[in-house]
Amino acid sequence: MGTEVLAVENVAFRYAGVPVLRDVNLRVEAASTVAVTGANGSGKSTLLHLLAGVEQPAEGSVRRRAGCRLALLPQRTGDIDALPLTVAECVRIGRFRPRRRLNRDDRAAVTVIMERLDLAHLARRRLRELSGGQRQRALIAQTLVQAADVYVLDEPTVALDATSRRHVHDLLAERVRAGAAVVFASHDAADATLADRTVRLTGALGHSVGDAAVHHGP
Ligand SMILES: Nc1ncnc2c1ncn2[C@@H]1O[C@H](COP(=O)(O)OP(=O)(O)OP(=O)(O)O)[C@@H](O)[C@H]1O
Ligand SMILES: [Mg+2]
């Protein structure tokens, strides 16, 4: 068993009293991938928000290893379009730290991730002037350029063509080989087979956790 970075125990969550998740248990280990699957409205995004600390559980606990650095790619990212950001600026944000300039390592990481996600030729374009898939690649780059222990991505490849999807899967696999944990939500049964473990959400009715090799599909 690997080092535990996130632990979800007996978690329940409600929006304004309406139950969304109940009895969710999950361990996320370093150097492993977890897929969160389930139908629309089953609570995938909600569970990812709980993992990232954006929401707090009504019952149970979500524990993060001390000092754990977490990078989140949310499903809804429309707010960022209000900012006049270029693609390069959007990606650099992933490396910002308070009261510190980007250093050589930061700039190198930005260059590499932009090349890997075929964004270099779009560097000066405004985010809101991109196609849906181009924009999604820029946001994935902003997430993956971060030096994190856990990458939490909500349906990262949904708008992407097959080539871009493969690039993202390769990058995620590299992060895992380097010791990070990856948690991603997906409807796609094929995506879930890339994971070491899947959590299948079924609304507030109860959930199953298993091995990706055993549990396919949403
Ligand atoms: N801010 C909110 N306020 C009230 N209810 C919400 C809110 N966000 C989500 N819900 C409800 O919680 C349930 C779970 O939503 P969630 O977004 O977690 O599902 P999901 O599995 O990510 O769905 P999708 O596949 O469509 O992304 C849904 O019934 C949804 O209507
Ligand atoms: Mg969702």
UniProtKB/TrEMBL annotation:
<keyword id="KW-0547">Nucleotide-binding</keyword>
<feature type="domain" description="ABC transporter">
    <location>
        <begin position="6"/>
        <end position="216"/>
    </location>
</feature>
<dbReference type="InterPro" id="IPR027417">
    <property type="entry name" value="P-loop_NTPase"/>
</dbReference>
<keyword id="KW-0813">Transport</keyword>
<dbReference type="InterPro" id="IPR017871">
    <property type="entry name" value="ABC_transporter-like_CS"/>
</dbReference>
<dbReference type="GO" id="GO:0005524">
    <property type="term" value="F:ATP binding"/>
</dbReference>
<dbReference type="InterPro" id="IPR050153">
    <property type="entry name" value="Metal_Ion_Import_ABC"/>
</dbReference>
<keyword id="KW-0067">ATP-binding</keyword>
<dbReference type="InterPro" id="IPR003593">
    <property type="entry name" value="AAA+_ATPase"/>
</dbReference>
<dbReference type="GO" id="GO:0016887">
    <property type="term" value="F:ATP hydrolysis activity"/>
</dbReference>
<dbReference type="InterPro" id="IPR003439">
    <property type="entry name" value="ABC_transporter-like_ATP-bd"/>
</dbReference>
<dbReference type="InterPro" id="IPR047748">
    <property type="entry name" value="AztA-like"/>
</dbReference>
<dbReference type="Pfam" id="PF00005">
    <property type="entry name" value="ABC_tran"/>
</dbReference>
<comment type="similarity">
    <text>Belongs to the ABC transporter superfamily.</text>
</comment>
<protein>
    <submittedName>
        <fullName>Zinc/manganese transport system ATP-binding protein</fullName>
    </submittedName>
</protein>
